[in-house]
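Service request form, structural biology core

Requester: graduate student, group of Dr. S.
Request type: structure prediction, single chain
Budget code: on file
Notes: please return the result as structure tokens.

Sequence provided:
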Amino acid sequence: EFGHHVQTLTGASQKVQQAQQSARSQADGNRYSVALELQADCYAGVWAANASKVSNGEVALEAGDLEAGMQTANAIGDD
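Core staff response, request fulfilled:
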């Protein structure tokens, strides 16, 4: 949920909510939602890439953590 937190801090979530309310159709509103989710996934990937680096001699993520996260995301899916 790191990505969604960043979106809240930057105001992206609020802007998407406003855009959804003024969307011409439900399909257009859904496109905004999907775009927001993809952006959150991107932010999470940036976090994961940096969290996996060695810091002060300790690795923030263990082997297999990223793969487990990817499997979970794949199982949940999205539109």
